[in-house]
């Protein structure tokens, strides 16, 4: 049983933040040189990509639930079973 549903946009946003942190960590340890402005394009691109993925994931979930709802409504309504009187 799943404890929560998968959120791919959050995964991408977290990966962008970790990538930025790793770049500056490498700069702090002296492994390589990272320009000071690196965080702006990496985080902006990562957040934009996360927003696009979140929107696509949202639309797919809505479509999937709409298809499931439309296939469930193919049977006769409950009121035609004869147990309820309609006046």
UniProtKB/TrEMBL annotation:
Keyword terms of this UniProt record: Membrane, Transmembrane, Transmembrane helix
Region spans: Disordered: 65-87
Polar residues bias: start-end ranges: 72-87
Transmembrane segments: 39-58
Full protein name: Uncharacterized protein
Organism: Streptomyces wuyuanensis
